[in-house]
Specification:
Length: 182
């Protein structure tokens, strides 16, 4: 008896789905890095904010903080299941999760910097600018990615097949919801 004829194991869809989440992860990495770089520029180069001081830390000494903040963001993203298949294809779910992660990140990053008394200290304005930029740019990046994925044909990786058996009123409601939000 040939078990391969009974069960179909096609590794291609799984690999494509993995590459889609990898692209999302790499894009998120780039956007978070850009947000933190812009925040550093706004806070220390343009000196935007309520605090006027000329005590700008060198970028090299700030890179350790920058790296810690970067890592913290992705630990939170992993912990809050940002890359789950239940979140990734839905702009609303991903946006809600991204904003939540950015806000948690700001609180945890500032809290850890105050507890550890880092030198140079992490600017609250830097964290605030980073958080605000992340709340805006990450959802925009995700929306752009999903639109491009649908045009190019990557959307097959972001969808699930559903089998509805029977013709009940509940099933009709499910079909209407699924077709309204494909």
């Amino acid at each position: 008896m040939n078990t391969n004829s009974t069960f179909s194991c096609d590794p291609a869809p799984q690999a494509r789905g993995h590459s889609s989440s990898s692209l999302l992860f790499l894009g998120d990495c780039a956007v978070v890095a850009i947000c933190m770089a812009i925040a550093f520029y706004l806070r220390y180069v343009l000196n935007l904010g309520l605090v006027l001081d000329d005590n700008r830390p060198p970028l090299i000494t700030y890179l350790a903080h920058y790296s810690a903040g970067f890592g913290l963001f992705f630990l939170l993203a992993q912990n809050l299941s940002l890359y789950d298949s239940d979140v990734t294809p839905f702009v609303e779910r991903a946006t809600t999760r991204l904003v939540k992660i950015a806000l948690y990140w700001a609180v945890m990053f500032l809290g850890s910097s105050l507890i550890l008394k880092l030198n140079p200290a992490i600017s609250r304005l830097f964290v605030g600018y980073s958080c605000a930029l992340m709340c805006i740019l990450l959802p925009l990046w995700r929306l752009g990615y999903l639109r491009i994925a649908r045009r190019v044909g990557f959307d097959n990786e972001l969808t699930r097949r559903v089998l509805i058996v029977g013709c009940t009123s509940i099933n009709r409601t499910i079909i209407k919801r699924l077709t309204a939000n494909s």
